[in-house]
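User: Assemble these into one structure.

Assistant: Restating your components, then the assembled model:
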Amino acid sequence: MNDSSTEADTEKLVSMNIDQDIPHEQTVEEIVASLGDTVGQTRVDNPKMSCTDVNVFYADKQAIFGVDLDIADNEVISMIGPSGCGKSTLLRCLNRMNDTIPICKVTGDLTLDGENIYGKNTDPVLLRARVGMVFQKPNPFPKSIYENVAYGPRLHGLSRNKADLDDIVVTSLKKAGIYNEVKDRLDQPGTGLSGGQQQRLCIARTIACSPEVILMDEPCSALDPIATAKIEELIDELRENYSIAIVTHSMQQAARVSQRTAYFHLGKLVEVGGTDDIFTNPKHELTENYITGRFG
Amino acid sequence: MTISLLLLVIFILVALGYTIGRTRAVKRFRSAERERRPHSLPRYYGYLVALYTLIPALVVIVLWGLLESSVLTSMVSRQLPEDIQSLPEGQLKLVINDIKNLAVGNISSSNSDPIRMEAADHFSGLLSKSRWAKGIIAIAAALLGMFFGLRSIAPETRARILVEKAIMIFLIACSSLAILTTVGIVFSVLFESLRFFGKVPFSEFAFGLHWSPQTAIRADQVGSSGSFGAVPIFAGTLLISVIAMLVAVPFGLMSAIYLAEYASPSMRSWAKPLLEILAGIPTVVYGFFAALTMAPMIRGIGESIGLTVASESALAAGLVMGIMIIPFVSSLSDDVITAVPQAMRDGSLGLGATKSETIKKVVIPAALPGIVGGVLLAVSRAIGETMIVVMAAGLAANLTINPLEAVTTVTVQIVTLLTGDQAFDSPKTLAAFALGLMLFVTTLILNIIALRTVRKYREQYE
């Protein structure tokens, strides 16, 4: 791995998480303490994943402060908040992508179907097959469209023969709503597609591993409105089979695609609740300020 | 007037031109009203005057240097008596050389007859006159240039643009120096090779299987007719290069993967420079390492298991050359592997791939064109490498693929051919140029392919 860039990224993350929006007279800890307990219902009846008292540190700087949150079966939960509020960091904890950053330390309980994902016996590699991730910038591999989708099934031995694999690839592409656009050129490089198509290809690639949860880190931030609309439609369809957690900067997007919304501020989960409630009737002052556009 | 004194005078004039030009521009424009503001800052007018001073003087000096010798020679030879002038061209040249040597004071020739002495006196007289004339004309040109330069100081003169253009021309001249040198080398090698192919047919050179470049120096010598089949020595080069690449590519690539993907920053910070030190070891040191340590060792091991190993085996030379090339491969591969975007790795890891699966299936394929480019550059380095093979590979042009036998390479043969005792236009010596040309063409083609693949790779992520 490219260590220098990881270091730089980490530094950036740390500074984003800690240094922004802080009045000089108060430390982060004081502000976080002043935010009080999370407003709203953090627990659900049918949790797929749940976080209890999660803290994340980059070296000795704390990026997430005691977050409790459940992700239910077959729901889309959106995480919103100003830049550097820790929403991406929390998302990356859910499939242990933070493991790739050496100085990152996670405490607290994170479970998938009741199993601790940071336990001694959990293999992050198997976890990531169950909890897939779609990244901010479309990142198809420089391989053919077919190979991009077949990558995960091949790794995990999900297919017995070629016909099986073909079937997985086609089904995944169909589920990601891109099959009709690429069916004639499956052997062409995935990097040759447009940005929106690339992102849907990345979603197809994730689906092909048959995950149970899909994490999306600002999946539309690099796309134009039409491509965004397609992805949002897709997210809505995917909800039938998967639990989805999506980090977004667009409040309209959160309102359109999610059933529940969580608002983060400076590494603290400030408020969580039904999306309609949050957007029509926010209980916490900071949430209200954010969604009415007063800051953020 | 010696050339150094002349240059000193000219540089003083140039400095003077700059100062005067600048001062005059400052004075001229201080009083100017708004509409007649000068185009450029005063210092550009200074530079402009300096250039006006420098360029004519340099032109005079260069032209004089080019023409002086031939003009003087013809003037001297016209003074010579009829019988000498009517000599054949070659001999006339010898006489004139004698005269020049006499004039400069290198009394090497015994024929210091009065005619030559007289001509030599005449020549040295002409030479000193010419030097004075050159100095005076050059300084006059500089002064004239300065005069025109100073006259051109006016608001309309676009001094800045002119100066910028002069700088650009200077830079172009500098960069074309390397290119022109390369072209010159190519042509000189090409013409000598054509002379060689005049004596030995190209088909024999390119397809002949026997290399024995000893030709008879005297007509009555026997047993060395000379045969110039280059296949064995190219095969030898190929064999040693292949052995070298078999060492360098796996080791270089693996160490690059370790350094780029696994090593901690502190490990990397000392391991990478250390590896690159390998590239800084003079090849002659590798050469005696190969000849004195590696070759006997391989021979000992080979004999202990019952193989016949030549004391100068291709294996020894190839192995050491491979070690020498490791840093090339690893350093270039490390760069391209590091250049693969982190997003690729994240994507693969996010799908549940392990680190080594990610490297094997995503990082290396993405970096492959760059790695291939690096390997090809290393190959051309291996083919052109001389010192190790001169010391560790043999001289016998065996056509073999057995790495335990002695083979010879193109570079070794060029060294031996040119350090021989034959006349410079014998086929033996000229063969070196033909070999050099072939070698040059081969490495050139490899380099072009390498640079193209590397460039193609670059475009992929930008």
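DSSP finds twelve helices and ten strands in chain A.
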